[in-house]
Design brief:
- The chain is mainly beta.
- Strands 1-2-3-4-5-6-7-8-9-10-11-12 form a 12-stranded antiparallel β-barrel.
- A hairpin with a 7-residue loop joins strand 4 and strand 5.
- The longest helix is centred in the first third of the chain and has 8 residues.
- The chain is globular, with a radius of gyration of 17 Å.
């Protein structure tokens, strides 16, 4: 994986993008990268194992590019490399795409739909389709409500029974001076993504953001996890 000093070295060449990353902890937001702007994400996940066996650490490196933008519609697409997932490179390389509709520039609601965690390899192919609405209830607050559907072979509970659909709910409160936001997210179901997540999304500079979160699984046989992510804008 990329060393921390290599990450810091590229910051000097980064262009400024006026946007936060297009998701906070897990639930996608109803925003995308501006056209021709690039975001690089470096994420680490740690789980608390209940026994000595099994992997408890995942690293991922991702890139997302704004590909389309007009008055009401916008779109981004990206790819993430996560390890370890499955046994082949095609399991670890996961693609995503998201579209957003906003009635107007100052609208108090937006909608988003997309595909995430799509891999060519069968072990990593979660094939998550989602749709959601984001409502800006107050000047510094927003709420996201949505649905997701995924692979019945990969999104399963601890008994290997399918748990491949559910609800998404998130509440976000902006910090003072636009330095970030606090987040509470809940994803229903009993699969590997079904969690209650608490965390913060912080802006260190116009082109550097950080996310840190803690997750409590809905299914007791899954494990609590810590998520950390650094996002760089170009």
């Amino acid at each position: 994986m990329m060393k921390i000093y290599a990450i810091l070295s590229v910051l000097f060449f980064a262009q400024i993008a006026q946007a936060l990353p297009s998701n906070d902890l897990w639930i996608p937001s109803a925003t995308v990268m501006q056209k021709n702007y690039l975001r690089i994400d470096v994420q680490q996940e740690y789980t608390f194992e209940k026994n000595a066996s099994g992997n408890n650490h995942w690293s991922s490196l991702g890139a997302t590019l704004g590909v389309f933008e007009n008055a009401q519609w916008s779109m981004e697409a990206g790819a993430d490399y996560m390890e370890p997932v499955g046994e082949k490179f095609s399991d670890s390389l996961q693609l995503n795409v998201k579209g957003v509709y906003a009635p107007s520039e100052n609208s108090r609601w937006k909608s988003a739909f997309g595909l995430r965690n799509f891999a060519l390899g069968s072990d990593g192919n979660f094939q998550i389709l989602y749709g959601l609405a984001e409502v800006f209830t107050r000047k510094n607050e927003s709420t996201r409500v949505g649905l997701y559907f995924g692979s019945s072979k990969r999104l399963v509970d601890s008994d290997r029974e399918k748990s491949n659909s559910g609800l998404m709910f998130g509440y976000y409160r902006q910090l003072t001076d636009d330095t970030g936001r606090l987040a509470i997210e809940w994803i229903s179901g009993n699969n590997a993504f079904a969690y209650l997540l608490l965390g913060a999304h912080l802006r260190f500079a116009e082109n550097v953001n950080c996310v840190i979160g803690y997750g409590f699984p809905n299914e007791s046989d899954y494990k609590q996890r810590i998520i950390t992510r650094v996002s760089l804008f170009y």
